[in-house]
Amino acid sequence: MSDDPLASASPGYALGRLLHALDTATAHADPAVRARATERAAKWRSVLEGMASGHLRVGSRTPVADTPAWVTLEVVHGGFATGRYLAEGPLEPHEEALLADLPAEVPGATPRARLNQWFLGDAGQRALVEAIRGGRLTITIPEEGALPAIAWLLEAGAEVDALELVATLRPLFERLRFYPRLEATPRPQGALVRVATIEEVAAGLRATREKPRVVAMNEALSVWAPLYDRLLALWLETVEGEPPRFVRGADGEPLRDPKGQPVIGGGWPCQRWPAGWDDRRAAWLDAYWETWLAASEEGRPALKNDRRGLGRLRDALGRVPEECRALDRRAIARIRQVLAGAFTRHGLPDSPERAALRREQAAIAARPSNAAIARAFAARLDAYPAKGGLGALDPIALPIRAAEHPGIPEGTAIPPSMIDKATRALEAPIAELVERGVIASAEVLAIVLPQISAEIAAAGIDDPGLRGLYSQIYAAFRRRRSLLLLNLEHQVRFDELPWIAALAPLRRSDQSDATRARQTLEEVTLLALGAFPQTILPNPLVREMGALAGRAGVDLPLTEEVAADIFMGTFTSKWADAARSAAGLLAGTLYARYFDLPASDHPALHEGREAARQGKTRVRWGKATAEGFAALCTARAREAGSAGGSHTARNGAILEQSQILTTHNLAVLLAGLDLVDRTRPLAPAMARDALRFAVRRQTQVAPGFRAQLQAVKNAAYAWRQGIFFLSLCDAAAQREALAELEREVARVRDRAWAGRFEPALAGLRLILGGGRFDDAGIGPGPARRFLGWSVGKH
């Protein structure tokens, strides 16, 4: 044992942080900053109190007295533990709901002890095992995976390990939550990624600006409406007789004179001039122009040029007193009409009716602006690591507390649009972000894919349910904040969690990085094709998939999209390999018949990389090329036309044929990764989505020649992919897909477009019925093969 004395952290740092937080909490001008500082001060006070009492020994890997190293602690800046357990605290809503349904005989000194005990019983164990197998649980803190691990150990016959784990956990049963949140539906599995960091999301929220119309409305309600009421009252003083109002008929509608003008009843303004009226007039004008000047200087809406009610009455009032009294009949009639309209709609200035309206409007104007809520929401996100992500949305989606932002009423809800923005920082499996719409395209998927670690935490576990449990525990553990450590101590390691150590025998130790990379590649492939079946895989995603394939040791000749304007007239040898893979997979299928694919033994498909290694291919610009494949694409491209057209269009037609022959990576991925059988159950929906997109993309295109060309090209991509996925379906599913597509076209309002699209429909109908196109892509009647590129008119 070492003779070196153990060092411990000095409380000086913690005291300095406390003083700084207190200073900010009392002196900062921003209420939100003060609120955050108050919360920080409370945490630093807990640190100092714990250190003074000996309950905390900061610098140790077990800084809280009588607490195992594996317990997840609340840790503040610098690695100081506050003494609070993150799995402790008040009951969560899902815990309260479960507690309400517990049988009375379940023992336990605290609510959490009773819940832990119930999950150890037969009913709780069954619920946990079913949730694990179904992927229906959510773990946000590592401790929440402990009882599920026990349930699985008992299910696997490892009773001794399970009982030892129970003995380890039992001392903290009364305090900690050792169970997960059970979900009604399966939770997506996989590595965790995020689209944006918390820092980026918070910056976007702080940039929120109120819409000018909303600002103008609030300004009108809170500033100009009271002035308007005073102005109405001022002119009402000059009315002789009853206040003017619009006269209504028996049906409640305003009566109109022969000229169509509303009939006004009541007296006329400018008939009497009460004592002191001139002074009140001058005071109102002073107040108006003072308000207008302040609004102008502050950039708020000013109603100087308002030509409605307020503007008309103000202009009349703005004349010198003598002119006010000498207004002509026409000017007085205009004033009378404004007063009649105002009094008819909302009552007299001092009436209960108008007072109720103003109270309602004041409440509307007093509502916090979206910009203010966004700033408060951004301040809430500041509590998380700026460069990191969110482990869950529930904690940040709660209504605003008064302590967070004194200028916003307690309980103000965070708008869904802001929650959506924060979801960009959610750290979750790719599948979940796709489902939520955060990853809304294959391009975004390509951006987040590199975030997936090469080391998949759950690799080596065969059972998918247990693999999902293990992965969630690992992800939750990775969210733990590091402790300040002295004496050469190390942070708590993942395998120090007792329930992870107990699960170790169920995990193969010889699992290689290659297998983990392949598992990731399979998941991403199925997600990309399933979520975005209508779009070809973008180049960044193809490159990332290629990198994963390399690490997995899988030979996949993945091909990228080539721009038509830079095409060099040939292809590298991997294109021939990809086309041969597609021909072999799709022989005899709908896709092969529709696009007239060559047989897999076609000479042009045997100029691949093996032929290149044997020196049997031509080398151009230092690369082995597939000249026969290029010639085949060029010959097939004549279907798109040969008369006229640009160089780019001719190149585009050739490149389209290269994508048709290779299926642009679909066949390579499904065949090379043995995903065909896993894709078949999904194929009918994927085909329908892709074919539906092909129709809608062309009927929702913006005007303009280039936009129309792009729409046709994208529709052709979707059409081709839809036919590929349809080739994985049985005959009944293919017929139903065609019928649904015909119904989709029948619903299109642009019947001229529907007529132009009929040849494509007829072509698909022809091939499904056993017919064939000729070499020019033409069938009997109107049937034509649908292509995206044409040389000349499409």
Describe the structure.
Among the domains are: 212-366, no CATH class; 555-768, no CATH class. The chain is built from 33 helices and ten strands. The longest helix is centred in the first third of the chain and has 25 residues, at 212-236. It is flat.
Terminal Cα span: 84 Å
Q: What's the average pLDDT?
A: 84
Uncertain segments: 453-457
Tell me the overall shape. flat
- Judged by helices, strands and strand pairing, the structural class is mainly alpha
Percent of residues in helices comes to 40-55%
Instruction: Kindly provide the radius of gyration, computed on alpha-carbon positions and rounded to a whole number of angstroms.
Output: 37 Å
Strand content: under 5%
Largest sheet: 2 strands, antiparallel
DSSP strand tally: 10
Number of helices: 33
Cross-sheet strand order for the largest sheet = 1-2
Task: Annotate the secondary structure layout.
Layout: H1 11-27, H2 31-53, E1 73-76, E2 80-85, H3 93-100, H4 111-120, H5 122-134, E3 137-138, H6 146-155, H7 159-169, E4 181-182, E5 192-193, H8 198-206, H9 212-236, E6 245-246, E7 264-265, H10 277-297, H11 309-317, H12 321-325, H13 329-346, H14 352-366, H15 370-381, H16 416-423, E8 428-429, H17 430-436, H18 442-448, H19 464-478, H20 498-503, H21 513-531, H22 539-552, H23 573-586, H24 590-595, H25 609-613, E9 618-620, E10 623-625, H26 627-636, H27 647-662, H28 666-672, H29 676-679, H30 683-699, H31 705-726, H32 731-746, H33 751-768
Antiparallel strand pairs: 1-2, 3-4, 5-8, 6-7, 9-10
Helix pairs in contact: 1-2, 5-6, 5-19, 6-7, 8-15, 9-10, 9-14, 11-13, 18-22, 21-22, 23-28, 26-27, 30-31, 30-32, 32-33
